[in-house]
Amino acid sequence: MIHGDIRRAALEHWLGAQLAAKFTLSPASEDASFRRYFRAVLEDGRSFIAMDAPPDKEDCRPFVKVAGLLRDAGVHAPIVEAQDLAQGFLLLTDLGHRTYLNELNAQNAAGLFSDATDALVKWQLASKPGVLPEYDEALLRREMNLFPEWYVQRHLGKAAPKEPLESAFALLVRSALAQPAVYVHRDYMPRNLMVCEPNPGVLDFQDAVLGPITYDAVSLVRDAFLSWDEEQVLDWTVRYWEKAKKAGLPVEADFGEFWRAFEWMGLQRHLKVLGIFARINYRDGKPKYLADTPRFVGYALSVSKRYRELGPLARLLEELHPA
After folding, report:
1. Alpha helices per DSSP H over 179-292
2. Which of 115, 76, 108 is nearest to 94 (CA)?
3. Annotated domain spans of the chain
4. CA nearest neighbour of 101 among 176, 204, 241
5. Quick one: three-class SS letters along 80-118?
6. What pTM does this model have?
7. Cα separation of 159 and 18, whole Å?
8. How many other CB atoms are there within 10 angstroms of residue 21's CB atom?
9. Using one digit for the tens of pLDDT, what is the confidence trace for 67-81?
10. Nearest alpha carbon to residue 201 among 93, 303, 108, 51
11. Quick one: which H or E segment has residue 298?
12. Could you give the CA distance from residue 68 to residue 128 in angstroms, rounded to a whole number?
């Protein structure tokens, strides 16, 4: 039997003890990590989600901790019904099949994004220092260094010049660390939000940190798998900023300053994701994410062109991607 089959058999045995009823097990979703999710459906129609996270590659403890923080904040996250940290198994409530990514359209986008920003404000209002790891300079730089290592060198097969990357990275780190620190989901995007009641359900939060206040907002509207025109992005960002101000969150009083920090935070994320998607392909054998790299190149190029300080980065991106 292959390794995955062995783990699935062990998971089914564990679930049998937890559910004490007959059930069928089927894949629920794919993940860019080593985690796997299955849907366990009982004969009476109830369903649960089972997480398989090999303990030598993944740690379930952050998932359990952040699930509790989200729920304490009034955000709809799964309840951890049972856990076996030694084996890397979790049994979770099922938030359904309807992801924002699949459900969003021109008619419902305003309402769904309004719900998502309301939940984000609740999450940020619950922030406390010393609870989650800090999104510090070391982590910010480690993420951006994936861009030259995996995307430029490995994927494009080109040299990754120290400059202007180092100067751009320094600017982006300085901007990020100057922002007020709040709880950051780190992948707060339509793929990880579920249309359910109460809306939205929030998933894939195990990498949460304490970090820049703009991070989750830009993740939501400049998404890995879905693009919106700039006028719409600006409108949703203003609406989040207004809600955050009204709730007492420490956003910039001037929207222009907030927008700049928002754009630069998004650029840090987009460079990181370009590296991650390349790494997932070459290291982990998951090629489908590479199809979305042009979206991120577009995001990064648009933002870097808008700011004089980032002009050298814009020119490098154009050299790496000649028309």
Report:
1. 215-221, 230-247, 255-284
2. 76
3. 3-93, 100-320
4. 204
5. EEEEECCCCEEEEECCCCCEHHHHCCCCCHHHHHHHHHH
6. 0.94
7. 53
8. 12
9. 999 999 999 999 999
10. 93
11. helix 293-306
12. 14
Enter the tokens of residue 132. 């989650």
The string of pLDDT tens digits covering residues 289-319 is 999 999 999 999 999 999 999 999 999 999 9
Which two tokens mark 274? Answer: 């370009």
Answer with the residue of higher pLDDT: 29 or 7.
7
Candidate CATH numbers 3.90.940.10, 3.90.1200.10, 3.40.50.620, 3.30.70.60; the one for domain 100-320: 3.90.1200.10
Contacts (Cβ under 8 Å, ≥6 apart) of 91: 15, 18, 19, 40, 48, 49, 50, 51, 80, 81, 82, 83
Does residue 3 carry a pLDDT above 70?
A: no
DSSP 223: -
Average pLDDT score over residue span 200-216: 97
Q: Is CATH 3.30.200.20 the classification given to domain 3-93?
A: yes
Cβ distance 172 to 264 under 8 Å?
yes
Residue 98 and residue 196 in contact, taking contact as beta carbons nearer than 8 Å = yes
Taking a C-beta distance cutoff of 8 angstroms, is the pair 18, 26 a contact? no
219 compared with 226, residue with greater pLDDT? 219
Do residues 155 and 282 lie in contact, with contact meaning Cβ atoms separated by under 8 Å?
Answer: yes
Q: How far apart are CA 82 and CA 15, in angstroms?
A: 9
